[in-house]
Design goal:
23% strand, GMP Synthetase, Chain A, domain 3, 3 domains
């Protein structure tokens, strides 16, 4: 299968569209960022994100594989350094450490004592954490020229959210198999939709597609 090129407002949305069209998971794809998106400002025209994606021949890797991508070690070091510096600037006392969980590379932030309020780094529905993730993504992209594979988490918020999403996806998949009717999940951001796509792809026998416009874009699970 030939490579395809997709554009969208964000890199993650462009990747999601390309993977959906190819019918493969991220672990089965080689992804190249052709252009980083940027919003319009003071008369400057907005610039979309563009990615080029092609299948990796013979790739078949579970999303629960404990091995991290080869570029993750360098990116983890960069992300840790950046997050520590940012927290210092914000005068937020917290511990920062790296971990690989279910094949994903994390920089974890923890309050140093019981009662330490690092919730400010999460924000309502994770919006502040998403902004922190975007900062880290930009730093890694600029310094390495690679797509960021590191996730920033605070007090395991992102991991707990991921587990809930996977459970919801599996429950919905069970309903699709039982009734034959498509099931729509709640609106999610691009990262969370990718979690659903990968989770259902690992199960096999069902299709997923993202539908709707942001911020109401959601995943629909259906039979082939």
């Amino acid at each position: 299968m030939a490579e395809i090129e997709k554009s969208a407002e964000s890199v993650e949305e462009a990747i999601e569209a390309a993977l959906a069209e190819l019918g493969i998971s991220e672990q089965e794809a080689h992804i190249e960022i052709v252009q980083e998106g940027r919003p319009g400002f003071l008369g400057l025209k907005a610039q979309p994100s563009i990615v080029r994606v092609r299948p990796i021949s013979g790739a078949a890797q579970s999303d629960t594989d404990e091995e991290s991508p080869p570029e993750a070690a360098e990116q983890l070091a960069i992300a840790e350094e950046f997050v520590r510096g940012l927290l210092g600037t914000m005068a937020v006392e917290a511990d920062v450490e790296s971990a690989v969980v279910d094949g994903s590379s994390y920089v974890d932030v923890w309050g140093q004592q019981d009662g330490d309020d690092v919730g400010i780094l999460i924000g309502r529905r994770g919006h502040t954490l998403d902004s922190l993730q975007e900062l880290v993504r930009s730093v890694i992209q600029r310094r390495t020229g690679q797509r960021c594979v590191v996730l920033v988490d605070v007090e395991d918020y992102r991991k707990r959210r991921r587990s809930r999403i996977v459970r919801q996806a599996h429950d919905a998949a069970g309903q699709v198999r039982k009734t034959g009717r498509p099931q729509s999940l709640e609106p999610m951001n691009a990262y969370e939709r990718k979690v659903v796509h990968d989770s259902i792809a690992a199960m096999g026998g069902l299709l997923t597609a993202s539908e709707g416009e942001e911020p109401n874009r959601h995943v629909v699970i259906r039979r082939p």
